[in-house]
């Protein structure tokens, strides 16, 4: 790969710009690929949380976990849960417990395979150690800037 600048110049580049550019490239790629299988990224988050759960999760648990993803917020996540129910991918009982439908499981399997392919695509030529270092550096930047980040 050819880099944008020499090492001496890269050291002086703004992390804000490059972290934003990385975010935009990665998220745009994920969203476009998921759209190709008929699901939005927030709908994927909902389906994945329900499909992967060791124990049944409630609407409140799923919404609470996902509301900070890409600044979605509680209103967006509640609407996405409603949409996944309306599309027949998950169900909700009277106590707010969510379950995956047969159609939802099929979509989950398809989208999960796609996510695996996207992961491999993004990580091509990047060792686990480089990835780990990158995650730690990004978290240090967040901490040093007074921010907070968390992902399940």
UniProtKB/TrEMBL annotation:
Keywords: DNA-binding. It comes from the Bacteria. This is DNA-binding MarR family transcriptional regulator. One of its GO terms (molecular function) is DNA binding. InterPro entries: WH-like_DNA-bd_sf, WH_DNA-bd_sf.
